[in-house]
Amino acid sequence: MTTRSFPVPRVGGEREQSYPDERGPRGTQIVNQWNVKRTKNPGKNASPFYLAQYEYEKQKQYPCMKFVYFGIGDGSKGVCLDSVFNLNKDDCLVLSFGISKDWTFDEAFGKFGCKVVSLDPTIRKEDHQHSKNVRFLNLGISNKNESRKSGGWTINRYFGLRDGRKGVCLDPVFEIIPGQCRVLSFGICKEWSFDDAMGEFGCKVYSFDPTNGMADHQRSPNIRFYSLGIGRAKTKQKLTGMKKGLFKVDRYENILYMLGMTNTTIDYLKMDVEKSELGFFRDVFTKSPYLLKNVRQIGMELHHTTSKLAKHRMFWKYFPMLKCHGFKLLEARRYFGRTEAVWVRP
Asked: Fewest CB within 10 angstroms: 45, 111, 229, 254, which?
């Protein structure tokens, strides 16, 4: 069997490696698609998305013999280099929508020899030539030729990376001014990118999480951390996603009192608390709804995909209550089993 050489599409690597013409060995770069592990049988209690994925993967697939991953980590995308697709170096064009700060896919394809047009309106960069083969355009894709707006406002900056990323509206009406703005951030684990970005922007950030094993400390000049969670009562309780232990939580009203901020404007309230947002909603709306008048924006990761329809309904009944308190939905982005939502209160 004859062999040929072509570059392993790994950013920063200049090595070449030979593979057989008809069948590539299984590995991190080139795999035999028929040997890739399929999704396990999810069982009757799985989410609708997981069931759909399982049913789809049971269907007969195209047997690609040279299945290559371009990019690293979250930016990695699979590409079939079989000769039938005529994906020739210096004679291929790639359109890439959605970059954030992960250029690994685009750069790998550029090094492979393709012309790449990268598009993303969220990273706040002007059109430019990123590299020899990669051209960036400050533009997104939609079903309408317009800016994504709600009630006259638009998300005009994302703070944080990947799972920690939250949209923030910096329109003048919200007066998010460096040196004067305040952010409450509930749910950190080890993902500090949002808090760090808001601190670098100039806001005072108060970060809360009882699960990451850290004691109260000053993370940076603008970021203060507290080993405390949010709930509907001052107590210790089990938390979703944590197999062992009881964790200290407190009511939103008590936390504001502790910070001396019961009558202070909260420019951004961020929550990524693995279903503890239910406790927050229940407590605030029933005991201290007046505190919401001081909150300008809420960014929340909602974990609503569940086999229990009753719990699913519990989430959505609170959203009209936000509207009653003057909040308007600015953005809702669906991910696997969760929704990233942003509400604003002008």
From this structure: 45
